[in-house]
Structures are given as C-alpha cells and as structure tokens.
Amino acid sequence: CTHAALTRSTLVGLGFKYDNLIMEESAQILEVETFIPMLLQNADRGMSRLKRVMFIGDHHQLPPVVKNRAFQKYGRLDQSLYARFVRLRTPTVNLDLQGRARPEIADLYNWRYRNLGNLPSVHTDSRYRFANVGL
Questions:
Q1: How do residues 15-52 score in pLDDT, each as one tens digit?
Q2: Alpha-carbon 32 to chain mean position
Q3: What pLDDT is stored for residue 111 in this prediction?
Q4: 97, containing H or E segment
Q5: CA distances for 19 relative to 29, 43, 53, 61, 117, angstroms
C-alpha cells in the first residue's frame, strides 16, 4: 500500500487503460488497498474509465492482516471491502462445487459453505482416491 502510494505517479505515467478490474483473493486485501488499482489510470475527460470491479475471494477464510490491535479493533481495518459488501448483503455468486480436495477432507469444512458439493473428478480421478503419504 505504501509503496503503491509512493510510486503512484510512476505507475500512472505508464498509461494503463482498463475498463474492468478483477481482484483475486479480495477478502484478504485491506479495504483501503482495494482502491489503489482503481486509481492507477488517468481520468478520461474528468471521468474514470472503470466500469466494472469484480471481487473474487472467500470471506470465510483469512481476513486482511492488521498488526496494530487498536486499528484492528476500533477501526475495523481487519475487514476487507469484499467482506463489507457481503455483510451489507450486496448480491454475490457463491461456488457450490469444490474440486481441490478428497471428499473426506472437504467434509471437514463443507459445514461453512451452503450446499457445497464435489465435482465429479474428485470421485473418479485416481489422485483423489488415496491419501497422499508424502512420497
């Protein structure tokens, strides 16, 4: 955040032009940091070119890291903009199928996600049939 703020003029000078912004792992980004890429282009006739911002992330996982307890507790800085939108009931699209873990492992955390199922590949692919013994 600090580095981006210090080098903003250099980054703006590169002349980035984009209408869409996609932020991956947006639930782990400090709220104030989400605005940095939105401001990295010059305005076009006094208006931002930005038309759409898409946040991709999981607000049930790790929040942004704020080391100062006072800022974290009283300033709610440990909340990402994405988590704020979810809390305010902004419409979201939730994935309902997982394909990264064996079904037995996914059972450990699927209570956290409504209607979470498994992709067919986790039942048929040999990589998911046996535990990884670390070999």
A1: 778 899 999 999 998 888 888 888 887 778 888 888 99
A2: 14
A3: 87
A4: strand 97-98
A5: 21, 12, 9, 29, 34
